[in-house]
Specification:
The protein is mainly beta. The protein has no helices and 15 strands. The protein has strands at 2-13, 15-20, 26-33, 44-47, 52-53, 60-61, 63-66, 73-78, 86-87, 95-103, 105-111, 116-120, 126-130, 137-141, 146-160. The chain binds zinc ion. Zinc ion binds at residues 33, 35-36, 38, 67, 69-70, 72. The site of zinc ion (ZN) has 8 residues, from loops.
């Protein structure tokens, strides 16, 4: 079992906090099989709200898939209290937003997609259903009378203890 953090970097314009919203938030990932090296072509969704019971024992996972090439069943669990938001203080740094407990697979790509909430600075609006599929998002906050935006989203993965 390997713990892998997803680190995200983004530029926030008049936004103080960007947050993956609720347990139904879906992390969109591509994986590689650590057993045979097969890389998944399609995107997979991993969500706290999807619980997959283990074939043996009492564990539950948040994602499980059978490798097309070597037929091994690989699983991923989200470490619940690892989920963080990206704030104005994190700008220009890669912040770990979530840690995955990976058994047999490792994530190799991430797409931000939708399901985020973003809060404007200075007591501005809280925007729900922020869609980062295009790797950027822009709106206008009529409370602070300023444009708000999120862009230049980048990510890395790294192993944690
Ligand atoms: Zn495999």
């Amino acid at each position: 079992m390997v713990k892998i953090a997803l680190r995200v970097k983004a530029t926030l314009e008049n936004i103080e906090e960007l947050k993956p919203f609720g347990p139904e938030f879906r992390w969109c990932l591509k994986f590689t099989c650590s057993n045979c090296g097969e890389k998944s072509e399609k995107w997979n969704y991993v969500s706290l709200s999807d619980e997959v019971p283990a074939q043996h024992g009492k564990d539950t996972y948040h994602f499980s898939s059978k490798c097309k090439l070597c037929s091994r069943v690989n699983t991923v669990s989200i470490i619940k209290d690892s989920i963080k938001s990206y704030t104005i203080d994190d700008q220009d740094t890669f912040k770990p937003l979530v840690v995955f407990d990976c058994r047999g697979v490792e994530p190799i790509d991430f797409s931000a997609r939708d399901g985020w909430t973003a809060k404007a600075i200075d007591g501005g609006k809280e925007f729900t259903d922020v869609d980062l599929t295009e790797n950027s998002w822009a709106e206008y906050c009529d409370k602070i009378k300023q444009p708000v935006a999120i862009y230049e989203i980048e990510h890395t993965f790294d192993r944690v203890k």
